[in-house]
Amino acid sequence: MSSNTFKQRAIRATIWTLIEQFGGHIIRFGSNLILTRLLVPEYFSLMALINTFISGLEMFSDVGVAPSVIQNKHGDNPVFFNTAWTIQVMRGLGLWLASILIAWPIAIYYQQQRMLWLIPIAGLNALLASLQSTSIFTLKRNLELSRLSKFGMLGYLYKTIIIIFWAWLNPTIWAIVGGSLISGFIDIFRSHKLIPQISNRFTWDKNAAKDILSFGKWIFISTAMTFLAMQSDRLILGKLAFPMLAFYSIALALAEMPKQTIAGISGNVMFPIVAKFQDLPRKQLREKILQKRWLLVVGMALGLSVIVCFGDILILTLYDRRYNDAAWMLPILSLGTWPALLEMTMSSSLIAIGKPMYSASGNFFKFIYMIIGVPLGFSLLGILGAVIVIAFNDLPIYITINYGLWKEKLIGIEQDVIATLVLIGTITILLSSRYFLGFGLPIDGILLKN
Q1: How far apart are the first and last CA of the chain?
Q2: Orientation angle between helical segments 383-391 and 206-240, nearest 10 degrees
Q3: Cα dihedral sign for 22, 62, 44, 380?
């Protein structure tokens, strides 16, 4: 493939990733607005906990099947990707069985008996997802994301329609759980039509399995640490302040939209690109990465400034009054995503060159920060203290990733400093304008309470 052809494919991949991300954000946001009017807040708190544990099982058993197919030079070989699919299905079955085992102790700990049957049923989603075709990984590997983006957006759409229609007919937690299962079944059949030439079947090749599991051992450690780091907020708040978990989940979902967008670009575009060029001299590879990254980080700074300064108005205007507490949480949580946004634009480079251990280490330090900081913040300032601590929980991983980038001669700290100054300057201008125009501050909701 010529460099021009690859560049054009990378540009198209970025555009389609952005289309999918923004389309998904709009659909999920619209769904959230409707469901918060149809369902009581308690259901959102309950589902936040359930999804946390299901995600935990998935991340604690991630052996890097998808990255292996994308990164390995044999990723287009049917023997290799069918072995990967076999491992994926075995993992999915194990996840569902594990969800049955963890349901009872979790229901007892959180004093929520409904979790005894909700967790195993929700856990079926992991089994259904494991049956999806490896065509998804092949399309990512070759930066052919138009079909994949359409696949994702259509999936968001019909899942949302099913859940909303169910909630309208029967406003119970079953609308969310059952709707997700139905859409999961549909996704299986749709995924196997993405590339008709690929027909997954159970295969076991020792060399392929060795390659996948060898690469995946650090992915396993990294994702396990990622779960502990990223989901510990819900686990701790679910015990300390269960009623507030619904408001926190809504604010967090909005605050993390930029992170999800960058994660999509990082995983779907930057990771395959760096994997293609991983044999280049580090200086040349670094220049290529930073050249493509510059406009992205500046755009992130400008976009995040708007969310920090005006996101609360969105919640107060569009959501039911029962969810007003999410308004003051949003600007704090949004501001705290900045280190993560910077880190995510570079961490995929370390994984692509076969160095995922830095992400694992960073998430371990983030987890330690959380288990110490969140209870301490809650004891000092209540829910406000907990939210402030959580907001800046990405600093440990940012520091660790940059250490790894420095060791691997891929550091881009200069860009981070300049982009951060752009962020601070833009927020200062927008907040000053808002205050002097009489619209107060984004965190007035909590300031007035205190």
Answers
A1: 62
A2: 150
A3: negative
User: Which amino acid, 119?
Assistant: I
Does the pTM surpass 0.70? The reply is: no
pLDDT (tens digit per residue) in 356-371: 678 778 888 888 888 8
Q: How many CB atoms lie within 10 A of CB 88?
A: 22
Q: Could you identify the residue written with the tokens 């769904």?
A: 31
Picking from 207, 186, 184, 449, the residue whose alpha carbon sits closest to that of residue 329 is: 449
Residue 389 burial by Cβ neighbours in a 10 Å radius (0-12, 13-18, 19+): buried
DSSP for 189-201 reads: HHHTTSSTT----
Intervals of the chain under pLDDT 70: 1-7, 10, 59-64, 215-232, 275, 278, 354, 356, 445-450
**Residue holding tokens 């989603």?**
125
Q: What does the DSSP assignment read for 303-348?
A: HHHHHHHHHHHHHHHHS-GGGTHHHHHHHHHHHHTHHHHHHHHHHH
Alpha-helical (H) ranges within 192-281 are 206-240, 245-255, 257-265, 271-276
Q: What tokens were used for 382? A: 């209540």
Q: Give the dihedral sign, CA 406/409/410/414.
A: positive
